[in-house]
Amino acid sequence: MATYHIETYGCSSNRGESREIERALRDGGHRPAEGPEDADVAILNTCTVVEKTERNMLRRAEELAAETSDLVVTGCMALAQGEQFREAEIDAEILHWDEVPTYALNGECPTVTPDAEPVLDGVVGILPIARGCMSNCSYCITKFATGRVDSPSVEENVEKARALVHAGAKEIRVTGQDTGVYGWDNGDRKLPELLDRICDIDGEFRVRLGMANPGGIHGIHEELVGVFARNEELYNFIHAPVQSGSDEVLADMRRQHRVDKFREVVAEFDDRLDHWTLSTDFIVGFPTETAADHERSMDLLAEVRPEKINVTRFSKRPGTDAADMKGLGGTVKKERSKAMSELKMEVVGEAYEAMVGETFEALVVEEGTGDSVKCRDGAYRQIIVQNAAERGVAVGDFLTVEVTGHNTVYAFADPVGEDDGESDDAVEDDLAESAASSV
C-alpha cells in the first residue's frame, strides 16, 4: 500500500478535483500520509489567480520537491503555465488532474469497489463489469485485494447499463481491473458480446471501454475491433498499458504480453478504424531496466505515437516481489522519467495540433473551470468549449464543434451553429466593433 499527500489551493472547483483524486487513490489501495516527507507521492493542486499566487505556488512546489521523492503538480497554474515550473527546474510531473490517479497508482490495475455496483455521476455512468484480474504482475499490490477475475453474466451487466441509461447517463464507462479478460473465469471471453449488447440499448449515449491489458485483449482483438467498427455508440478508444518496450523487462514484471502482441493489437485497430485513440502506460525505472531497455521504451512510444500516455516512475509496493529487487537510484529514474515525459508532450501535442481546423461530433460530459465544459469526440479526445452558458451549451448535449486551438493535452473548440446565419467575416466585424467600443 502506497501513501500520498495532497495540498489544494484556490477555488471550490480545485477542491472538488482533489476529492476525485483522493477517491481514486483510496480505491486503488493508497492511504494518506501524515505529511509530504512520509508520502510516496505528493500532489500540489495549484491556483493561478494573481502573480503573487503564482510565486507562492512555485515556492511551495520547490519546497515539496525537496521534501518528497515524487511530486505531481496539477490544477490551474500547472495547465496554464506549466512551463514556469520547468523553467524553475522544479523536479515534478505536470499533469491534468484526471491523469494524476493513474500516475500515482504506478501502473497498477484500478481497484473496483467491493460491491461492484454501477454509479451515476452527473451524466456519466460508471459500470464495473467484473472484479479481479488474471495477471500476477510482480510490482502490483492490487492483486492482493481483488484476487482472480469474477465476472457477472452479460445479462446482468446489460441490465445495469440499461438502468444507467434510463437514469440519465449519456456516457457509460465500462470499468474493471482488466476489462479484456471479462468472462475468462467462466471459460469464454465475453467482452465483445457485452459491448455489442450495451450498444443495442435504446437511447442516445456513448460507451467508453476501460483499461484492458494487451495480454487480455490479444486473441480477441480482431473480434473486438469489429465491435468498435459497427457501433457508433462506442468511443474509438482503448487503454492498453504496455508498461515497457523491452521484452526482458516485461518478463521481469510478469506481464502477460510481449511487445509484439501490443504491436499486433495496435496494428489491427489502425487497419480497421479511420479515427481512434490509443492510451497506454509506461513504467520507467523498474529495478531491472537498463539504459538499453529504456531506449526501447522510448523507441516504442515514438513508433506507435499514442494520443494519451501515462508515465510513472517505479516505486516499491510492500509485499510485492518487485519490492525485494535492488532498485535503481532516484536520479536515474528522474532522468528517464523526464526524457519520456518530454517525448510524451511532443507526441500528444502533435496529435491535438492536428485537430485544429477540423470539425467533430462531441458529447458534453462535465463542467470545466469557469464557464467552460469538457467534451469528448468520437475518439474520446478531450475538447474544451468556453463561454458555455452564453452559448446555450450544457452537460449532456451532443454538439458539432470546430477545433480552434489546443493546450497540448486537450483541444479548444467552438460549437458549429446550424442556423446562426452569420458569415465568418460578419462575426469578425462584430468582434472588431466590440473591441473598438471597449477602448
Q: What can be said about this structure in brief?
A:
This protein is an alpha/beta fold.
Largest sheet: 5 strands, parallel
Mean pLDDT: 87
Terminal residue distance: 58 Å
Full CATH superfamily name of the largest domain: tm_1862 like domain
How large is the radius of gyration?
22 Å
Q: Strands of the largest sheet, in order across it?
A: 2-1-3-4-5
Helix vs. strand class: alpha/beta
Count of beta strands: 17
Helix count from the secondary structure assignment: 16
CATH class of the largest domain: Alpha Beta
Low-confidence stretches: 418-439
Query: Architecture of the largest domain in CATH?
Result: Alpha-Beta Horseshoe
CATH topology of the largest domain, by name, is pyruvate-formate lyase- activating enzyme
Q: What percent of residues are in strands? A: 15-25%
In the residues, how many domains can be counted? 3
Please estimate the helix content.
25-40%
Instruction: Choose one word for the global shape.
Output: globular
Domain TRAM: 353-417
Family: Belongs to the methylthiotransferase family. CDKAL1 subfamily.
GO molecular function: 4 iron, 4 sulfur cluster binding; metal ion binding; tRNA (N(6)-L-threonylcarbamoyladenosine(37)-C(2))-methylthiotransferase activity
Cofactor: [4Fe-4S] cluster
